[in-house]
Amino acid sequence: MKPDFRKSMIWLHTYSGLVIGWLLFSIFLTGTLSYFNPEITQWMKPELVHVSSTQNMINRSLTQLHKKGVDADTWRIYLPDERTQHWSIQWHKEGKRHNLSLGPEQGQILSPRESAGGNFFRTFHYTLQLRGYGGLYIAGIAAMFMLVAVFSGIFTHRRFFRDFFTLRLKKLSKTLTEAHAIVGVVTIPFCIMICTSAIMIYVIMYMPFSAEHYAGGQRDLSRALSPGLVNLDKSASRHIPLLDFTVVGRQVQSQWPGQKQIRRITFEQPFSQDGRIIVERVKDLTLSRQSKRLIFSSHSGEPLAGYPNASKATQVRRVFFGLHEAHFADISLRWLLFLLGLLSSALIATGLIIWLNKRLEKVKQHHIGHFIVERLNIAAISGLPLAIVTFFVGNRVLNTALENRASIEVDVFLWAWLACLFHSFLRPAKKAWVEQLLITSLGCYLLPIIDLYQDSQRLKNAIFDGNLTYLTFNLFVLFTGLIFMKTAFWLRAKNTLYKTVSLRVNKLC
Amino acid sequence: MKHNLDVLFRTLAAIVGGYLVSAAFSVAFVPVLVLGQICEQNEAVMVVTMLSYTIFFAVIILSFCRENVWRIWRDIILTLCLCWTTYYLLGDL
């Protein structure tokens, strides 16, 4: 091994980054998108209209539930907030789950298109569509690798400050290395926070021995550390649940002053004597993942004993979880985190390209390893954005009456990505880059146009209702398209410049 | 060839050795917290498991920056023995 600490850290940085860089890039990019999970879902289901100013939402949900969910085991009411216009009710009956989305008119039921929504990115970024096949473990390993790469990356700088203030744009490899250094310094705290909290979410699952030895497994441990409510007796005598929520609403208001404090209301065994209502507070007031909860009786509305306090260790873990999900972040902080996520993805991408460029400069003959790294770089860095854009296009183009539409959308994403992989193997590298980037930008421009073509009312409604989510999404997509196009043209110009220079050199020789 | 073997043993020390050491730590140090009356057992399990990742991280970094690869393995085995002794002495209390 290398004799001194710095050199061995550089080696570690190079290879820990390379081995898992493509995976990390995919995880970081999709994870970054899921900062705007509800907003993306909102865009992907344009049938969800503006409901958040509707009056008396809880009682209207209750009326619907009384009609549809007689003798159900649970009722749930999801209330809309500033980030999402999704107002829905859910009931479980005989092991089956039923959902309904409600609209602003009295008794109106919306039927939004079936779509994977923004949640696809969230699930993909920690399961990689491999839930049950070790996807969660792969994501955890990736987080550990990233921590190692970030830590060892700090030591690759000999002149920390000078590196931070240097960016030369003349030569591609210089630009990339210096950009990598700058972005690296900026995102150190973010990357450490994200990777540590990612590991902490599944802390017991990745290291189960202690829990198994002392507590008899993960479930028993979490039950002991954060005890739930008492089990309900199903056979207790029958009672009709509340029709008017005001009794409970008044008590909630005195505990949690302010407007729109409730995020979700759950009725457990609503038709039983001991049925209860769990009222959950919105999440943007706490760092923890678990927001405050209040318990009431489901037929009289009297307050019941609340959840027992969770242990300190569990609370710490929940704060890690909350930090990772960032429900606390208001809109400006959310954009900042989003930007940091994008920068971290760019950090990984530039790192991968630098690894290859440095080696290609030194060797005359392409090694098979170089070839594979080059293709995987293309397929990951320009292929993933392309697949994401295709996913969005698919959401608009696919027939809304299709069966299993949500999973078809996911298939579209995966096939598009696979196509990018093939494309990168079939084309010369430099052309593959430019082509994929151009197609991505084309897709970005296409999205708002498709939307206008399908239903120009959407844009009008968005402007008149002040639907910022819809407008920002479209503007951002256009902006992304512009950036991708600029990058593609810049790359092409570099390539032709390089070619003419080398031709001249050849002639001179 | 020698370099490749060196890297292989270091990588194994980092990944396998690191995981073993942190797993052993997560089991062995629960009784220490309980006997020190710092927290009760279930909470100690959570605390020590969370801390064990820092041990994992430290082992990874150490396995790549120590000069002699055999010393790394020696230290991993010594740490495992230490964990086992701690558990043996305190575990059944």
Structure description:
The complex is a heterodimer of chains A (509) and B (93). Chain A has helices at 5-33, 37-44, 57-68, 119-127, 135-154, 160-164, 172-201, 203-206, 209-215, 218-225, 246-255, 312-325, 331-362, 368-397, 405-426, 429-454, 456-465, 468-508, and strands at 74-78, 88-93, 96-102, 109-110, 262-268, 276-281, 293-297. Chain A has 509 residues and is an alpha+beta fold. Chain A folds into three domains: 1-46 and 114-212 and 328-339, no CATH class; 57-112 and 227-309, no CATH class; 363-509, no CATH class. In chain A, helix 1 packs across helix 5, helix 1 (5-33) runs parallel beside helix 14 and helix 7 (172-201) packs across helix 13 (331-362). The longest helix of chain A is centred in the last third of the chain and has 41 residues, at 468-508. Chain A starts with a helix and ends with a helix. Chain B has helices at 2-28, 30-35, 41-65, 69-90. The interface between A and B is medium-sized, with 32 and 29 residues.
Concise structural overview:
The complex is a heterodimer of chains A (509) and B (93). With 509 residues, chain A is an alpha+beta fold.
Considering the chains and any ligands shown, give keywords for the structure.
heterodimer; A: 509 residues; alpha+beta; 3 domains; 7-stranded antiparallel β-sheet; 18 helices; 7 strands; 62% helix; globular; B: 93 residues; mainly alpha; 0% strand
Helix/strand/pairing category of chain A: alpha+beta
Kindly report the average pLDDT value of chain A: 89
**Backbone shape of chain B:** elongated
Low-confidence residue ranges of chain B: none
- Shape descriptor of chain A reads globular
Please report the number of helical segments of chain A.
18
> Counting H and I runs of at least 4 residues, what is the number of helices of chain B?
4
pLDDT below 50 for ≥5 consecutive residues: which ranges of chain A?
Answer: none
**N- to C-terminal distance of chain A:** 41 Å
Helical amount of chain B = over 70%
Largest sheet of chain A: 7 strands, antiparallel
Biggest sheet layout of chain B: none
Series of H and E elements of chain B: HHHH
- Which chains share the greatest interface? A-B, 32 and 29 residues
Mean pLDDT of chain B: 91
How many separate structural domains of chain A?
Answer: 3
What distance lies between the first and last C-alpha atoms of chain B, to the nearest angstrom? 50 Å
Gyration radius of chain A, in Å: 26 Å
Helix content of chain A: 55-70%
H/E series of chain A: HHHEEEEHHHHHHHHEEEHHHHHHH
